[in-house]
Amino acid sequence: MVTCRELLDDKIHLFTERGIENAAFELSELLGMVLGVDCRSAEYVQALGEEASDDVRQRLSELTARRISGEPLQYILGEWEFYGLPIKVGRGVLIPRQDTETLIDVIQGKLIGRNNLTAIDVCSGSGCIACAISNRLDCQKVYCVEKSDDAVPYLRENLSRHCADYEIIQADALLEETVNRLPDADLIVCNPPYLSMNDMEQLQTEVSFEPEMALYGGEDGLDFCRDFIRLWAHKLRPTGMMIVEIGIGQEEEVAMMMVQHGLVDIRWRKDMCGINRCVYGFARF
Length: 285
Prior knowledge:
The chain is of the alpha/beta class and 285 residues long. The protein is built from 12 helices and 9 strands. It has a 7-stranded mixed sheet, sandwiched between helices. A two-stranded antiparallel sheet has the order 1-2. Helix 2 packs across helix 4 (54-68), helix 6 (98-111) runs parallel beside helix 7 and helix 7 runs parallel beside helix 8 (152-162).
């Protein structure tokens, strides 16, 4: 008899050999998925001492093979948490990351207490940012701009679960006609593609599974950001806020773009790893 715990220990050894970090955590998540229980629950702990059925062994082997091939854990699980919300994910959308939660911290700190906000989430992807905004602020409506056919089904499902009043605009965010379809807003947020050519050449295997159009920002990583700020800054209402996620070392250039297009009181904020992760500014009174 092979127990689930013995099966888990065997797979952890395999993951460790393949250089997968947090092997125990990842295998626990996968085994919990196979067993249909939360890996942090008492039911899971009890199941570890029980015999692993042939079906459990087969399904776990299939999932571990996918992970060893480089497929991200989050895609295999089909869901990942962002700012306390379960977000559906898969091929076609960026995986929600803790780095991006920095934007929500800033937005909440600056706009909490303001009522009936109109928010626009550009490059919405899975909709994790829009969902968090809707849950943390008093939003009259959240508009989500997303170009990708692959991303929109995830976006629609997540918004329907977590967002009270939203509208999806499936269009290219860098076309003036798209900008003109949207109302003026109190908040415009964007997690744009910002990886440089050099970054793309050094991607981790897991990141290479994510959509290139959501990652690659041109030679220096700032092509999308330049056009985004130029086109969207004028859509802010007086005292409205624009915030953009950035890559390492991009804060000064992005801040200057905001200055050039009329925004004021421009700052940047570090993430939990001490890396400047977003730049934000405000429209004048």
